[in-house]
Write a structure and sequence with these properties.
By secondary structure, the protein is mainly beta. It is built from 3 helices and 23 strands.
Length: 258
């Protein structure tokens, strides 16, 4: 890697492939740009797909970079990613503690968001986003996305028929299916599934360490095996005694109402 400091713009540019920015004195002595620490307000990483051990300079206001087909910029509370393909977080992860981004905005040609340290409160997905990975938080899909629709932060198939990721709150009125793994973030709460729902797929409720209550309407006519309601039940399913489609799957291990 090579580096350059532009003192007029306050920009440190590092060009290369991978770089480890260490805080130990012996490394700082080798990285002579550390002498400009008080003047550096912006960092630009050209070609770096990985950057680690970031040193939180007190005056840095933004970090940005380009690697392959991906360009990105992180400022206080916001990360913007543009380009084409899947956005991997190895490079901007180094700045999470410095900028604490709570909003991630993906450009229209970003097709996926790989697992990384950036857990945003709000994630904007663009027109070409097709990945089935939704990391959590409140998600907003572009109206031009042909795969997904979002409603109050939750993700559905286009047209709102099937729930893919539940962010909490109200379900869309057109929902018919609770998808596999879609309600994986429930805690000790009561979740009332909406009237008109017809199907609950296998392992729709993935729970760890909590005991939520899920109330199932009589409109549900198909329910696949949900291990969260098995022998070591961590979900309390409540349903009508007359709903045999649900009772046959749950096996009477949970509550019912007449």
């Amino acid at each position: 890697c090579v580096w350059e400091v532009n003192t007029e713009t306050g920009t440190l540019t590092i060009t290369g492939t991978n770089y480890s920015w260490m805080t130990y004195p012996e490394f700082m002595e080798k990285d002579n740009w550390s002498a400009y620490e008080s003047e550096i307000e912006h960092i630009y990483l050209d070609g770096l797909s990985r950057f680690s051990e970031s040193y939180a300079m007190s005056n840095v206001k933004s970090a940005a970079g380009q690697y392959g087909s991906i360009s990105w910029e992180m400022t206080d509370k916001t990360l913007r990613v543009n380009g084409t393909g899947v956005a991997s977080g190895m490079v901007w992860d180094a700045f999470v503690d410095l900028f604490a981004p709570c909003e991630v905005i993906l450009g229209d040609q970003i097709t996926g968001w790989a697992a990384n340290r950036v857990i945003a409160q709000t994630l904007h997905i663009g027109a070409d986003y097709s990945s089935e990975y939704f990391p959590g938080g409140f998600i907003i899909a572009s109206p031009d996305n042909p795969y997904y629709s979002t409603y109050e932060g939750s993700v559905y198939t286009k047209g709102f028929t099937k729930l893919l990721y539940y962010a909490g709150g109200t379900f869309h009125p057109d929902i018919k299916i609770i998808g596999t793994g879609s309600c994986r973030g429930l805690m000790n709460e009561t979740l009332v599934l909406p009237w008109g729902l017809t199907t609950i797929e296998d392992d729709a409720f993935v729970i760890a360490g909590y005991r939520p209550t899920v109330i199932i309407p009589d409109t549900v006519t198909s329910m696949q095996q949900n291990h969260a309601g098995g022998k070591d039940c961590s979900v309390i399913f409540t349903y009508s005694k007359s709903n045999t489609a649900v009772a046959n799957v749950i096996g009477g291990k949970t509550d019912y109402f007449d």
